[in-house]
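haha ok so turns out i had the wrong file open the whole time. this is the CORRECT one, sorry everyone. sequence first:
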Amino acid sequence: MNRRRRTLLLTLFVASAAFPANADEIRETRKADSCSCPKEGAWKAQNLKGWMNCTGPVNIKQTLAPVKDEGTIWVLDEKCTSIFSEASRKQDEDILMNRKEDSCDFSGTVSGDANGVQMVIDVNWPRPGEVYIEGDMSSKPSFQGMTCEYYRPYQIRFDEKIPEGDYADRKKKMLKKLEKIRAKN
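then structure:
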């Protein structure tokens, strides 16, 4: 075997050992490399102007004013496929976000009661960044002969890491909340 052929074979052997062998592994490697994972810690949210339209015995069209909020994002696994978004206020709902298959997008669902109306809100994060996320939430509740549609975009910005001295205690509390949410779903 001549020298060129040996060099080529050695190069191919080394390259094949360094790269994933099948298409699923290649896709998973590309996905992991191209998707950002939001930083764990405190985040500030700006709920932008939204709208609500209701039809039924009375038609209602309402603009939803911008609202500021804050919370904590917890990354639940090393591959960043599950995130728990913890609300800072007790009256707000926490959200379990999961990365969509073969995508960098996250989605989640919040269910709860708002002024006596059972609400299910779909939350989306298309391609979140490490320190900035743009997303939207929407819902289509029905009650007392009315059907409503609700939509609001928002922006979330990383604020600060969880202080090391607080991390263990806060994580224990978060895990209890997460367990309740998983049991509810």
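The mean pLDDT is 81.
again sry for the mixup
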